[in-house]
Amino acid sequence: MRDSSASAIRAPKQTKKAAPQHAIGATEEQVIYANILNIGMKIGLVGIIASFLVYLSGLMSPMIPVTEVSNYWGMKSHDYLVAANIQSGWTWVGLYRYGDFINFFPIAFLAGVTVFCYLAIIPTLLRKKDSVYAVIAMLEVLVLVAAASGLISTGGH
Amino acid sequence: MSLLANGLVRPNRIKLDACSAMLACDRKELEHNVKEGWYMRRGIIIISLILLTLTLSLLATGPVFASAEAGANAAKATGLAWWAWPAILFGVTFVMGIVAVLAGVGGGVLFTPIIGGFFPFSMDFVRAAGLLVALSGALAAGPGLLKKGMADLRLAIPVALIASSGAIVGAMIGLAMPDNIVQISLGVAILAIVGIMLKAKKSEFPDVPKADNLSTALKITGIYHETSTGQDVNWKIHRTPQGLITFIFIGVMAGMFGLGAGWANVPVLNLMMGAPLKVSVATSKFLLSITDTSAAWIYINQGALIPMIVVPSIIGIMLGSFIGVKLLAKTKPAMIKNIVIVLLAFSGIRAILKGFGI
């Protein structure tokens, strides 16, 4: 059980009734979360740089030529989609042949790493019978998946 | 000797021997003090040059952004090559990354108002990029902070659920608003943030007489090693329900404006809920990786992502942050923070004016 005594600054105190749940530093699930986050961040960052270099080099033809991107970046996102004839949501996956849209993959990966981290700690939380936090973590996964799914949308402007 | 004592010339052993003999003081102590002064002066000069470059870059590109619709014609109006704006963006975000670390602010709170106010990009794309920039920074810092126990997962998880849900709502509201309303609202929000940065106090070890019932039930408490004192610090929090409610509004604002929420997370965690300052800062940084993820997805799925804006920004900020960390030990963060506050105030006013078409 975690120590909840009043004093904020003192040497760690081991008692029979309130033995610390973990050594000073990170809990088991915290370390698991950190390790997956670390690996995911590095993969995502390398992917972003690599895909952008491919985009700039012209190895894969972009859907919107690089010289014409400036014609769109001043528009509202809804107007941009209409003008460029692009669908919203996950349709970018189907545009993997285009140099500009391959950049979406590592960016989406970076935005999705957190979901993997949460999924990884849920078994540990359940094993520790920390059901409240396991439920909160599951709810967070649902929130992030709902956001990523494209089901939540605005009316646009 | 006065030039040496003032740190305006590099320390020299012969000069130090002469000075210490004249002053009848310990040469090693004199050498240490002189070197410290010299490094500080050099750091100030470097930072001043960087900020001057940033300011000149912004001023040089300023006239193009007189109207909210300048974006589409920006390249033609200025005769710049297609790669010029992304290159300038990279340079500006690189400097931003350095300054953000030195000032102890997040990259997001600088990115969105400055890029939105001075670049020809629609606020939809700027906000999406701002969220991804803040997210990238949080992903980079998160693992280390978690492993050291500075960021606390038990504190972050319930807060993150509240804030990320609010961020989704904020992103939806933000995307539905016209650009000029976003600019005006952002400007007002930035000026409020400036006020918070000026007024908000920080408490290194807040006095928490007793943990409240909710934090006790959730077992939100912990221990971390304070390196400055060499002691282990037990901490607990209070006012948990009030803090969680506040995080709803923080999440909404983060999603609406594409700002990282560190400017709000830290005061709430530290001053309202009573977490130690270092735990608050570290947990706030980690929290951004969750809060900004949910909002970023809304913008991505609505098409508000242009790689030519996002990627140079992410790379620029991250490279700048690496440099900023190296400079941090050699500069006075308080001075840099004051400059950043002025810069933010300027950006906030610029956003309001841009929203009114001025």
Summarize the structure.
The complex is a heterodimer of chains A (157) and B (358). Chain A has 157 residues and is mainly alpha-helical.
Overview of the molecule:
The complex is a heterodimer of chains A (157) and B (358). By secondary structure, chain A is an all-alpha fold. Chain A is built from four helices and no strands. Chain A has one domain (28-149). In chain A, 52% of the residues lie in helices and 0% in strands. In chain A, helix 1 runs antiparallel to helix 3 and helix 3 (104-127) packs antiparallel against helix 4. The model of chain A is unreliable at 1-23 (pLDDT under 50). Chain B is globular, with a radius of gyration of 22 Å. In chain B, a hairpin with a 4-residue loop joins strand 1 and strand 2 (231-236). Chain B has a two-stranded antiparallel sheet with strand order 1-2.
Strand content of chain A: under 5%
Please report which band the strand proportion of chain B falls in: under 5%, 5-15%, 15-25%, 25-35%, 35-45% or over 45%. Answer: under 5%
C-alpha end-to-end distance of chain B:
53 Å
Number of strands of chain B: 2
State the end-to-end distance of chain A. Answer: 52 Å
Q: Which stretches of chain B of 5+ consecutive residues score pLDDT under 50? A: 1-11, 62-76
- Share in helix of chain A: 40-55%
Taken in chain order, the helices and strands of chain B follow as: HHHHHHHHHHEEHHHHH
Discrete helix count of chain B: 15
N to C succession of SSEs of chain A: HHHH
